[in-house]
Write a structure and sequence with these properties.
Structural class: alpha/beta
Largest sheet: 6 strands, mixed
Strand order of the largest sheet: 9-12-11-10-13-14
Number of strands: 14
Number of domains: 3
Radius of gyration: 25 Å
């Protein structure tokens, strides 16, 4: 590393750690400001000297997300052709966007990273392998990220996600918790994530925005839940010297004053892959803000109420942030409640965004159309009562209700991203399998908020059970489960044939169910 780069790194490090809570990205060189604009971007490239295992197909895969809905779209995939070239046109919701990508086969990832796409500037990537099959990447165009930035940004976010701090949150009041999290935990995690990686200033600016937004959404908005959960865990482990019933206080509005430290109106936040919409929806859900459901209220009138409740906390009363709050208020209704837009809501959306950004209207209404189609496909929803039997007989009692049928039992949760993506992927095969006599049984539990669960299942269909804590813990231990999603496959005689941790793909699920149904 040369002295010039090293000196920049030292300046950035000191600047970050001398600030009270976060490093504002605008002090650094940054990516060009994006805007919400529906369009496409083109990626082309080549692969040279790769010794591909026999029978394997090499693919270039791109995954995108939306700042309006948070959706991670189905990955866009193209095969590398016989001339070792590839071309892919990718639909985008912003004119400039950070997306994840991989050069891979079904079994091997040769390269993964983030790339910067621009609807007006094609990105070209060359992957070159040497005699030892070590890869060199050269990228030109798009947002002009270097290949090193593309890979290291991806690595930094993965490091941030796996760097965890425990803590006795129940021993801290909300202010103490907030100060510790922002003053110690966040800084430690950022330091761990970037210290060993060579990153440009604009890559660091993107990462600091991402880390801050992800961290707030994941921890600071959950003080009460974190405090009560750690109290319960410590009580069970015997480490808690005061194992009495504990109820953490709900933070008041002043707790969230740290939000004014962040550039929440910056269009740079639209770049944040996968987390920005989640952050906005958490804002909508904060009890202390008392933000009402948008319902059929005209957007401007609804925003008047919202501004009065939060402008003193975020530090401003107009701009992109408020437009994103309104857009996500509608898409949250679609996603969480599985409730289509009313005629009045459609009119309100069209009226408000026509002079601001009509592409936001298109994105919301397209999402509503997908929901209507999903509800039509999954119109067999049944909420089932949990059998009133001893815990040791609970699982077999549920299975016995479907004797003579092949059963796919899906253990899932509303907070489990892989679970929700698996539901979407399996929707394409369910109708065929139902005609073969397959029954889809879904098991959720107390960790999924009941109201949210009731909304989500409307878009899933099938037979649904909601277990309490004792019921779920017993079955979890009975099956030696390790996580969600977990799938149990039963034959027509109610015999457990397979237990699968993690979604294995629609083809695998379909093949196993068809074997038993024929």
């Amino acid at each position: 590393m040369n002295n010039k780069i090293l000196s920049k790194g030292i300046v950035l490090y000191l600047l970050f750690y001398l600030m009270p809570f976060c490093l504002k990205a605008q002090v650094l060189n940054k990516l060009p400001d994006p805007e919400i604009k529906i369009g496409t971007a083109k990626v082309s490239g080549s692969v040279s000297n790769l010794k591909l295992p026999k029978g394997e197909k090499l693919q270039f895969v791109v995954a995108t997300s939306s700042p309006i809905s948070g959706d991670e779209e189905e990955p866009y995939t193209t095969n590398v052709d016989s001339y070792n070239n590839f071309v892919l046109t990718i639909p985008l919701t912003c004119n400039k966007q950070i997306v994840s990508c991989a050069l891979c086969t079904d079994s091997i990832n040769y390269w993964v990273g983030f790339i910067g796409l621009d609807q007006k500037n094609e990105l070209h990537i060359n992957f070159s392998f040497d005699a030892k099959q070590q890869i060199t990447v050269d990228a030109k165009g798009g947002l002009n990220l270097t290949a090193e930035d593309s890979h290291n940004m991806y690595e930094a976010i993965n490091k941030f996600l796996i760097c965890r701090h425990g803590g006795f949150f129940y021993g801290k009041n909300p202010t103490e918790f907030k100060n510790y999290e922002l003053g110690t935990v966040l800084k430690d995690r950022i330091q761990y994530s970037i210290d060993s990686l060579n990153l440009s200033q604009k890559a660091k600016a993107y990462l600091f925005d991402t880390f801050n937004i992800k961290f707030i959404s994941g921890r600071l908005f959950y003080y009460k839940e974190n405090a009560e959960k750690t109290h319960e865990q410590e009580t069970k482990s015997g480490n808690n010297k005061s194992p009495k019933a504990y109820k953490a206080e709900e933070p008041d509005k002043s707790y969230y004053s740290f939000l004014s430290q962040y550039p929440l109106n910056s269009p740079q936040l639209l770049y944040i892959y996968g987390y920005y919409s989640d952050f906005i929806r958490h804002i909508l859900s904060v009890k202390a803000f008392q933000i009402p459901d948008i319902g059929n209220i005209p957007i401007e009138k609804w925003l008047e109420v919202v501004r009065n409740h939060i402008k003193d906390v975020v530090g401003f009363d107009s701009g992109l942030f408020y437009d994103m709050l309104a857009a996500n208020a509608y898409t949250r209704q679609i996603d969480d409640n599985r409730k289509p837009l009313t005629k009045e809501q459609v009119e309100n959306i069209e009226d408000y965004y026509k002079t601001r950004n009509s592409d936001i209207t298109r994105l919301i209404l397209d999402k509503n159309k997908k929901l209507l189609k999903l509800l039509e496909q999954n119109n067999d929803l049944k909420i089932k009562s949990v059998p009133a039997v001893p815990l040791k007989d609970l699982l077999s009692a549920i299975v016995s209700r479907y004797r003579g049928k092949v059963v796919l039992m899906d253990f899932w949760a509303t907070w489990c991203g892989p679970c929700m993506r698996a539901h979407q992927e399996m929707s394409s095969i369910k109708e065929e399998l139902k005609k073969k006599g397959v029954v889809f049984v879904y098991i959720a539990n107390y960790s999924s908020p009941k109201q949210l669960w009731e909304g989500k299942i409307r878009g899933i269909g099938g037979e649904h059970y909601y277990l309490n804590k004792k019921e779920m813990h017993y079955i979890w231990n009975q099956l030696k489960m390790e996580g969600n999603p977990t799938y149990l496959i039963y034959d027509k005689k109610g015999r457990l044939k397979q237990q699968i941790l993690g979604f294995p793909g629609t083809d695998t699920i379909k093949d196993e169910l068809l074997k038993l149904s024929n």
